[in-house]
Design a protein that fits this description.
The chain is of the alpha+beta class and about 300 residues long. It has helices at about 5-50, 80-90, 150-195, 225-235, 245-250, 255-260, 265-275, and strands at about 60, 65-70, 95-105, 110-115, 135-145, 200, 205-210, 215, 220, 240-245, 280-285, 290-295.
């Protein structure tokens, strides 16, 4: 996997993370919305029982059921319990179809239950008029069908919460990743340019200065250090005559006075190695020096 592909996958990961985080925030806000409404049910149940000081314990969700539990014993009348629960659920727009179960804390037996919102049958309130004795009760509410009218507004509010809670760090992450991709692309481009800066095209040949090699098609011909320097010098003044003394000084330096007679030998070697391209010629300018001729 290339670096470019890795960065692409990383960008997709950030987008997926943002989507997931938004969904988590929406779900969390919806649960908080429900918890507030359900605790209000517990509060009103205590007031009906004549208790204005006891606490409503935090609403818990167990096996898909929301548990409303009070800090003290209370009593209730079924019709009043139905009224309290229905009013709060409708007001908070939590559900259109739900099941209510009241359990005894001591033995966890269901001592009262009913279902509301089932379109297939009438809403049934059993035991109406029979006030239950004061005891420790737990009220369980199971949402069988959510109120679809409020699904979008709740999601919209959750989206706003997500903007404050997650948008800033995730946006910064995305901007950082985009910057990395941008600079990586430019860096790769620059690196490629730099990596090819030692390659010079001479006719149909490519001179690899770093590896001192001539490349023609797929064939490689090695050059000595002096051959590479000589060819590069001739190419830098292509179609221009270079004096012998200038060539010796640039390529051989102080040794030029002693090995001047070998210049012709090096030129002859280069001619053979460039023989595959008839448009390249190294000609001897009698009494002056040499000229690299490139016919384009």
């Amino acid at each position: 996997m290339t670096i470019r592909h890795f960065h692409l996958y990383l960008l997709v990961f950030f987008l997926v993370l943002l989507t997931k985080a938004s969904g988590i925030a929406q779900h969390s806000l919806k649960e908080s919305h429900r918890a507030v409404a359900l605790r209000m049910i517990g509060h009103q149940m205590l007031l009906f029982s004549g208790d204005s000081t006891s606490r409503v314990l935090p609403v818990q969700k167990e096996a898909g059921r929301y548990k409303i539990q009070l800090d003290s014993d209370f009593q209730f009348a079924p019709e009043e319990l139905v009224k309290i629960i229905d009013q709060n659920i409708k007001k908070a727009q939590i559900a259109t179809h739900y099941l209510v179960e009241v359990e005894d804390c001591s033995n966890h037996q269901t001592i009262y239950s009913y279902e509301m919102g089932n379109s297939l049958r009438s809403n049934i309130v059993p035991c109406a008029g029979r006030k239950q004795p004061k005891a420790c009760y737990q009220v369980f509410i199971t949402i069988l069908k959510e109120d679809q009218a409020t699904a979008k507004p709740v999601a919209h509010q959750a989206s706003q919460g997500t903007n404050y809670f997650l948008a800033i760090p995730l946006t910064c992450g995305l901007l950082l990743l985009t910057g990395l991709l941008f600079f990586r692309r430019n860096g790769s481009s620059n690196t490629s340019s730099k990596s090819l800066s030692h390659i010079i095209e001479i006719g149909k040949y490519r001179l690899d200065q770093r590896n001192m090699m001539l490349v023609f098609d797929d064939k490689q011909v090695e050059l000595s250090g002096k051959e590479s320097d000589l060819l590069l010098l001739l190419y830098s003044a292509a179609n221009t005559t270079l004096e012998r003394e200038h060539i010796l000084k640039k390529v051989w330096g102080d040794e030029g006075n002693y090995i001047g007679r070998t210049l012709d030998v090096f030129v002859s070697k280069l001619r053979k190695k460039l023989a595959n391209d008839s448009n390249i010629k190294i000609v001897n300018i009698r009494g002056i020096g040499y000229k690299l001729i490139l016919n384009t």
